[in-house]
Amino acid sequence: MSEVFSARSAEPAPENADLARVRDGDETAFAHLVAPLQRELHAHCYQMLGSTHDADDALQDALLRAWRGLARFEGRGSLRSWLYTTTTRTCLDILKARGRRVLPVDFGPSSDHAVLDGNVPLTEVGWLGPYADTDLMDGPASPHARYERREAVELAFVAALQHLPGNQRAVLLLFDVLGFSAVEIAAMMDTSTTSVNSALARARKTVKEKVPPRTQQQTLRKIDDARVREIVGGYADALAGGDIDALVALLTEDVTWSMPPLPHWYHGITAVADFAWQVPMTRCPTWRYLLTSANGQPAVAFYLRDDAAGSHVAWSITVLTLRGERIAELTSFLGAEHFVCFGLPARLS
């Protein structure tokens, strides 16, 4: 994963004239300098913070800090390194105030049957959110680099990062994902290379214990794109059509389904099937959906019928994790606010 946004990737050196204009207060020149890096900086903020909304705030704050402090950039290192220093430190400040993001599996054991009462949203909890990955496919990057960009925002990886202290999280991302050296990271984080190497070793150990050996990108590359669309569309059709047999046929025996911000989650095909039948298939009005992508994985945007509104309204972004040609995990991020980040409509007729 070390070449996702590799420090060795081509980065045009900022022209002295551009820097001079920035130092003279030219905001347009500053925007021109940072524009090629904003996409990857935003992804870095999401990996650090586990929330698109937090990433938006962090990047805005970091760029403001960079604008105000550009006089300290002397041009001896790369602009990219300097911006990552500011952005990483901004994220670490936010982490101190807000703590880590979680998923329902972090709260306790799964439920073995559909929870119909008491499964109310926990709004005081900082939940991990989905990431709109469309921008990661843009630009001149090679297919391999785009592949690794998607790998670096996969749900399992980002969820594992949330279990790391802030400094370990930053070191792992800067070294393994972004390709900075231990010496560079030590300077960025105002620490020693010994501390960087120690934090990196601990971070790698924790992440290895929590991330499956095969990434979703590795799994998806083994499956024809048309077959992936067939699996995802089959799941959405089965749920919307109330076809429990068709749904079960697509699931692994140990499938899980979680729905942040609801705390209850389900593990195993029996429990998942019971929930699917008891709640979305029989107790909810009609569904419509759009196929999309999130965290480098196939996803479905579900819309639930609202008779008062006379339309189907945004309900959840459900991210699918595949194992072979079956669905091993369903993570449904409930809330219309997620649809804005994906550029999806708030309602369907």
From TrEMBL:
Alphabetized UniProt keyword annotations: Sigma factor, Transcription, Transcription regulation
GO molecular function, a single term: DNA binding
Keyword match Cell membrane: no
RNA polymerase sigma-70 region domain mapped to chain residues: 33-100
CDD domains: Sigma70_r4
Domain RNA polymerase sigma factor 70 region 4 type: 156-206
Pfam families: Sigma70_r2, Sigma70_r4_2, SnoaL_2
Stretches assigned to the SnoaL-like domain: 234-329
Name of the protein in question: RNA polymerase sigma-70 factor (ECF subfamily)
Organism: Micromonospora polyrhachis
Lineage: Bacteria, Bacillati, Actinomycetota, Actinomycetes, Micromonosporales
